[in-house]
Amino acid sequence: MSLNELNKQNLNSPEQVMMAYQLPDLEGIVKMLGFTESQLDEEVGYFDDLMPAEKWPAKFISVRTIREVVEDEYDDFLEQLGSGASTETNPDVLLGKFRSQLRLTWRKLLVVTNNGNAYVAEKTKAMPVFKDGKQ
Questions:
Q1: Is 46 helix (H, G, I), strand (E, B) or coil?
Q2: Which of these ranges, 14-28, 86-100, 120-134, has the smallest mean pLDDT?
Q3: Is the CB of residue 91 less than 8 Å from the CB of residue 21?
Q4: Residues in Cβ contact with 127 at an 8 Å cutoff, skipping those fewer than 6 apart
Q5: 33 contacts 131 by C-beta, under 8 angstroms
């Protein structure tokens, strides 16, 4: 489909955008990124949500799973496409742009653990690495 044809369409839902641009659904994205179920269930916190404490350790005020982060990032990406924010129509190029967007978000996250009182940074775990190329 040409860019002009895509711009004329009223792409209101993520499903419509995925169909128009021939992009995978969320499960396809997860598979493409190569995450395991245990990685998807890991809890993470944004550096911006780190609440300083008078005594170490600092606590995270908002925690999400990796699955939730990927889902929200993909929804935001699809929303941008649906609003006409991209002039690209090649699915492989678009998926590369999504990976780049996700990589930027990844830099803002830490794996966290619940110590019984609060969520704190997990010192022994790094953010999981996702696949960078096509499967």
A1: strand
A2: 120-134
A3: yes
A4: 44, 106, 109, 110, 111
A5: yes
Helix (H) or strand (E) holding 87: none
Radius of gyration of the chain (CA): 17
Q: Before 91, cis peptide (omega within 30)?
A: no
Q: Which residues contact 41 (CB under 8 A, 6 or more apart)?
A: 65, 66, 67
Those residues whose C-beta lies under 8 Å from the C-beta of residue 124, and which sit 6 or more positions away, are none
Q: At what angle do helices 91-106 and 26-33 cross, to 10 degrees?
A: 70
Tens of pLDDT, residues 55-75: 667 788 889 999 999 999 999
Q: For the packed helices 14-21 and 66-82, what is the interaxial angle rounded to 10 degrees?
A: 70
- More confident of the two residues 133 and 77: 77
State the CB neighbour count (10 A cutoff) for residue 66. 23
Characterize the bridge pairing of strands 59-60 and 50-51: antiparallel
